[in-house]
Amino acid sequence: MSEVTNSQQSMARTLTQDWSSDVTTFKGVPWGKAMMWIFLLSDTFIFSCFLVSYMTVRMTTVEPWPNPSEVFALEAFGVPVPLLLIAIMTFILISSSGTMAMAVNQGYKRNKKAVFWLMFVTAIFGASFVGMQAFEWSKLIFEEGIRPWTNPMGAPQFGSVFFMVTGFHGLHVSAGVIYLLVIAFRVRAGKYDHTDYEIVEITGLYWHFVDLVWVFIFAFFYLW
């Protein structure tokens, strides 16, 4: 019994020493990156709860659920095109993941000018996405009459879950745009010239997470 107790005490001392021995945790993972992963993990739980709640509401409501092809149609040359705006928004956000990945790659090479412009373009993509989402919301509210508490096109729960989930994601994209611009201009100002540009990779983790969440929202809200 004493051997087990001594073993547990030894493991506890080792764990304490491991966490307090350096400015990094997990022996090689920088604190900034570790904290970002923890934040993203907690955010994953929140988005998962939202999407599970949406599925529950969708499958239990007795009223007909609105047809996404009709609700999110956009006229082009006088013809309603299903999911046209959503397709453009998705393309923009996926493209921003590409520019962010290139920015991280250039950060490894310490190419300050390329990092700045690639992060700036990524922020422009993100801002464009938010602008299109605002247009989508205004169309649903003022043209279709959809509100969080009512929906003339079917189940009233549609408006509440749609505005909650897409709004929460839009808030993340807006915060990400600000984050990208702040880091991009700090890179251009030379704030990280004496570092390994690790902050660019951390920013990329956040942005890729935002893009990944949109893929699930797109599948659940617009394709189901």
In short, what is this structure?
The chain has 224 residues and is mainly alpha-helical.
Helix count, per DSSP? 7
- Percent in helix: over 70%
Question: What is the structural class?
Answer: mainly alpha
CATH topological fold name: Four Helix Bundle (Hemerythrin (Met), subunit A)
Global geometry: flat
Supply Rg.
Answer: 22 Å
Q: What's the name of the CATH homologous superfamily?
A: Cytochrome c oxidase, subunit III, four-helix bundle
Number of domains: 1
CATH architecture level-2 label: Up-down Bundle
Number of strands: 4
Major sheet characteristics: 2 strands, antiparallel
SS strand fraction: under 5%
Report mean pLDDT, rounded to a whole number. Answer: 88
Write down the CATH class.
Mainly Alpha
**How do the SSEs run, as a string of H and E?**
HEEHHEEHHHH
The N- to C-terminal Cα distance equals: 57 Å
Model regions low in confidence, pLDDT < 50 over at least 5 residues: none
| Strands in their spatial order, largest beta sheet | 1-2
